[in-house]
UniProtKB/TrEMBL annotation:
Phylogenetic placement of the source organism: Bacteria, Bacillati, Actinomycetota, Actinomycetes, Kitasatosporales
Domain Phospholipid/glycerol acyltransferase: 58-170
Keyword flag S-adenosyl-L-methionine: no
CDD domains from the UniProt entry: LPLAT_AGPAT-like
Protein name: Acyltransferase
Length: 240
């Protein structure tokens, strides 16, 4: 079963790669469905509930547990993903990410941060959506990291709404599922196999009310308002 699921995921990803040249000509609804199919093909059911998502420039932010979070967030609204600059150097995947419109941030070069924030603000002013995981790493789902504030400055500068999204995974008995978590020394291949081998996992996506421009005057309070819940515990994350 796991092999079949991973084969289906691979075929869907290849189909997406083949359609990359079409770019923005692909309807947003089709992209959202494709993203849900990827998660469903991995054997994970999807539930998306909550507020309507604004059109125009928008910063989507979510907690980070798994690689599944990326298609789940795109299933809420297709957006340009913000990722660490190391991904650009990954074989094959880095080039595909760049072609797909991923925006890169160098977390090790603080001097470059103002230019990155300015670039993000420019994208947002142009009416595009940008998706980010402000925790900066994946967490187990029981514990969470604090939202880093830099990305929220771009939303303030561009005067666009912030769309908070909460992502969680539950098992057969309704308890938090550990299979999707991508933490510690985990590899992507091991995580893919574990997710595809699991049974009864449900991805729960809660779209919270958007935070309109002007509702928070500084990035600290905006980040705090967008944070899904208070941080519990100190279980570490996996930097991606």
């Amino acid at each position: 079963m796991a092999v079949l699921r991973l084969t289906a995921v691979g075929l869907l990803v290849l189909a997406g790669i083949a359609l990359l040249p079409l770019g923005r000509r692909i309807p947003a609804g089709a992209v959202r469905r494709w993203c849900r199919w990827i998660v469903r093909a991995a054997g994970v059911r999807v539930r998306i509930d909550g507020a309507a998502v604004p059109t125009g420039g928008l910063l989507l932010v979510a907690n980070h547990i798994s690689w599944l979070d990326v298609p789940l967030l795109a299933a809420v609204r297709p957006a340009r993903m913000l990722a660490k600059t190391e991904i650009r150097r990954w074989p094959v995947a880095g080039a595909l990410a760049a072609r797909g419109g991923v925006l890169f941030i160098d977390r090790d070069r603080l001097r470059a941060l103002p230019d990155t924030v300015a670039a993000l603000a420019g994208v947002l002013r142009g009416g595009a959506a940008v998706a980010a995981f402000p925790e900066g790493s994946t967490w187990c789902g029981r514990a969470r990291g604090h939202f880093r504030r830099a990305v929220f400055q771009a939303a303030l500068d561009a005067r666009v709404p912030v769309q908070p999204v909460r992502i969680g995974y539950r098992g057969v008995r309704g308890t938090p599922a550990t299979a999707p978590a991508f933490v510690g020394d985990d590899t992507l291949l091991a995580s893919l196999w574990r997710v595809a081998s699991a049974r009864g996992v449900v991805a729960e996506v809660e779209v919270r009310p958007p935070l309109p421009p002007g509702s928070h005057l500084d990035r600290r309070s905006l980040a705090r308002a967008a944070q899904p819940e208070a941080v519990a515990g100190h279980e570490g994350g996996h930097h991606e």
